[in-house]
Amino acid sequence: MKQPSDRPSDRPGTETTDRPTDRPSNRPGAQPGTTTRVALYLQDAHPIREAMALARYAEERGFEAVWQAESRLVREATVPMAAYAAVTERIRIGSGVVNNWTRNPALLASTFSTLDDLAPGRIVLGIGAWWDPLARKVGIQRAKPLRAMRETVEAVRALLADETVTYDGEFVHLDGVELDYVHQERRAKEVPIYIGATGMQMMELAGEIGDGVVLNYLVSPDYNAAAMRHLERGVARGGRDLADLDRPQLVVCSLDDDRTAALDSARLLVTQYLGQQPHIMAASGVPATLLEEISQVLTWPATKEQIEEASRLVPDEVVQLITASGTPAECRERVASYVEAGCTCPILYPLGEDVRAMIDAFAPTRAA
To answer: Which pLDDT tens digit goes with each residue over 100-111?
Structure first.
């Protein structure tokens, strides 16, 4: 088992067999809802049994994956992932994303090996560096996030490959550890590792060592241009081309025949992120003056009343800058702009009550 690289990475590959050869490609100009790859993103907005039904419906309509969030202390990802895997046959199931701080790499590998037992070849480990202030509030100091991520990915990948791992890193310490199969067949598990990245140094690391990168939501398509440049630097260090790296992207989608209702629905989520993760918003060109105004009203955690009050400060153009919101046609056009900017598979985060209507609007199996 190789040890951490000496390359300075205190700041924030190969083509895997998990990608079916008949999967539709995202080429420039391809229209979401026709030939483009598309996936569904679920968080805690729906009871798990309802989310299971949505995963089945997305599979029926030709979606290639369903990703489960684990960004807040509301719903952890792996339990619903198992539920989705149990009621589907083809669709891939990804974590979007678990963090690399709260689970030991051996436990991470064991957990995702178990999920692969349930749905062989359909599980994706999406992993990210978490965020403050949440991490800090639970006692985690996210020092050297790039170093920690590199060590975790290297160790977990080796364990899933059925290796016996000794690893003496700065964050990861394993002494002759393996996935200790007793009754089942011993085999390498085909679980690709996708790194959730927002900052450009983490983007480069994802390009260098990831099987894929999960691009964040609530960013503008223009943000992707910088992301692609840094991913290219990373894949070059790993001896690959950008085309070798899968680049799915979370995209908030608020779809309604009533355009005003769609924008108002997205505005609440946008407002929450303006207050809680302003670094992401700034990277997308949200004015600093607006971020400052929001920060006076809203931090983390926030009450519903605080979010609603702060949302009155957020204009339509900011909502449209970082989401796909509006009528079905407007949403498809906006999602296509993310594909044009480098996203290989939109992961649609549905807002509003009628999730099936959004699935239908983007379904690859719908009439062109």
So the answer is: 999 999 999 999
Query: Is 0.85 topped by the overall pTM?
Result: yes
Domain ranges of the chain: 39-253+343-362, 258-326
Contact predicate 93/66, CB 8 Å:
yes
Structural element, H or E, at residue 273: helix 259-276
Residues 364/63, Cβ–Cβ less than 8 Å: yes
Cβ of 143: how many Cβ atoms within 10 Å?
10
For residue 246, the 8-state DSSP code is: B
Q: 76's torsion region: left (phi>0), alpha (psi -120 to 50) or beta?
A: beta
Residue 163 CA to residue 181 CA, distance in Å, equals 12
Which superfamily does 39-253+343-362 belong to? Luciferase-like domain (3.20.20.30)
CB proximity list for 60: less than 8 A, separation 6 or greater: none
Per residue in 201-251, pLDDT (tens digit) is 999 999 999 999 999 999 999 999 999 999 999 999 999 999 999 999 999
Residue the block writes with tokens 């909502």: 319
Give DSSP secondary structure letters for 132-191. TTHHHHTT----SHHHHHHHHHHHHHHHHTT--EEEE-SS-EEEEE----SSSPP-----
